[in-house]
Amino acid sequence: MKKPEKSVNVRSLAKKAGVSVATVSRALRQPDTVAPHTREKILRLVEKYRFVPDGRAANFSSQRTGLVGLIVPTISNSIYAEFTEAIQSRLQAAGPSLLIVNANYSAEIERDIIRKLIESRVEGVILTGYRRDASLYQLLEHYRIPFVVTWAISPKRSIPSISFDNHAAAAEATEMLIKLGHRRIGLICGVAAINDRASMRLEAYQSVLEKHRITFDETLVSQQPFEIEAAAEAATRLMSNPKPPTALFCANDIQALGALFACQRMKIRVPEDVSIIGFDDLPIVRTANPALSSVHVPARQMGNAAADALIAAARQQTPIKSQIIPTELIMRASTAPLKHSKGTRR
Amino acid sequence: MKKPEKSVNVRSLAKKAGVSVATVSRALRQPDTVAPHTREKILRLVEKYRFVPDGRAANFSSQRTGLVGLIVPTISNSIYAEFTEAIQSRLQAAGPSLLIVNANYSAEIERDIIRKLIESRVEGVILTGYRRDASLYQLLEHYRIPFVVTWAISPKRSIPSISFDNHAAAAEATEMLIKLGHRRIGLICGVAAINDRASMRLEAYQSVLEKHRITFDETLVSQQPFEIEAAAEAATRLMSNPKPPTALFCANDIQALGALFACQRMKIRVPEDVSIIGFDDLPIVRTANPALSSVHVPARQMGNAAADALIAAARQQTPIKSQIIPTELIMRASTAPLKHSKGTRR
DNA sequence: AAGCCGAATGTAACCGGTTACATTGCCGGC
DNA sequence: GCCGGCAATGTAACCGGTTACATTCGGCTT
What we know:
The structure is a homodimer. Chain A is an alpha/beta fold.
């Protein structure tokens, strides 16, 4: 009762064309090594039978997959879209295809993904963040799969990273708010326990406060998943503090927008009553009212550099060199010097 | 001078364990068909040598890939993120992995992608929009790869689609604006020539105007790529019209936000001076000020249904049934009845 | 005319699991 | 004591291209 349908393959095609399998394969891969007449006869048959060679067999046999894996924590945030597009266009120019996978901020999912990528023998992996089980890095090394960490600087020499410096970038933003005279500075950031980028930005915030002898006030910090609604609620809570902050540093632009909208609802003026600085510099925050100050993140360059590095590593056997790409704090209309309104602390 | 490194595989492992390759394979795939003692000996070796079986060989040999391809026009718009996540979680429960690819609104890229998906012998393909070369559908059919169109209802019976109705949804929004008394209604939408969803929404807008005997004014329509800045500029242009529209229908929420921000800049009040309706119902428009009215798109259900349909089609050989999923026009604070101010506004 | 070269093509091994089928060995029933 | 039957394991074909190496043959050199 089985289907008798033989799928067309190089052997059946070779028979029809009256040539050998090697000739068919060559006609498709290296057309100029086949006599024009033979080649055309074969290509006509390929067309006629709509032959699409089995890529698995092809790269299984040739021992090359032409695949690079990219693991991002989410695809909801469009900052990763820009990053992904940069990687994709670089890879496309060089050959390999990109396998985009979404780990959803889960270490377990990421573990499974990495395993699957190794199973499919990808020729490179781009990781987001450095914090993960050491055995995963060992596995990649064991299979000689070049990999590179992005969006975070790896603290270990053996783990190459191509990234901007989260700590420095967040510190710069916090410093700027202090320079503007702010002392009560709220922080809305991601959940540090599951997100090393959030954790580094939080650390930077704390260390800058400490440097300026401003006591850390836990009630001014809110760790939230990256959903605008959650951020808006967090901002509402922070601004309802008996001694509300005069500035908010949001370690993510989605959260900054949530904070902005929440302030507008509460009739708290930005930047007159509260200054806001975001992080990522998404196109949307440039267009918002007021346009939000934000830390510009070099997503595109980072993607380009990571892709180039992997391509080079796959070609030669050279190890990947770590790079640090600068960020830029872009000041727009959402930040202003602190006004010393009477009756309040200074 | 070649590397002497033999990668570990079932054969080398079998030798070390003193068993046959079949036993190794079974120890990994069907552990209970192997005697506990043997199984543990093998698993210990797998652990020791960090053996990760070659998935290409595995699914090449077993003739199953466990792969489903998803082609989206962009990953920048977070509405696709929700859709993608729904698909991913359904597939994960059933087994297959999801290959996400970004066609970037380009027919050529999409053509290459479909070819590559066929080459890798995916077991299903989820497409966005129905408008594409017929030969691509034929190729998929020829290779017996189940596929389904989403985000647009396919006009052909032979092409199954699981989608909401773009025409009906856009018509409902336009009707609502008319019902609120608006007669001069601007439209900002995607580029109809490259985007069948945009084109259907534009058509719906036109047909509703016609139904209400409102003459179509070309200067009130702007087709734009989905970037907030472009939409903001378009809105600025539309609102600078000597006879500006009293309502804007934006066939995409990103564009609606751009329009909202542009109006705020121009000190045009929303909804007092101009009503805005968006499309997609992104979380961000619910939080914006004013919260935007928008056509809620069933991205999650559509993703679930599409994934389920492909899984079913792959299991049995049943063809996929088309489905239409309802949308819902959600009215929020950005829309108001037309005020009959004579001559002036503001 | 013998010998050589290179272009065109053919042959078959190979990539690394999977799996149908074969084999082995042990137990219990009769 | 023989044999059926089952559990555990082994053997080897197979998936479908790729490619190293072999072969064929026409033409050119000397």
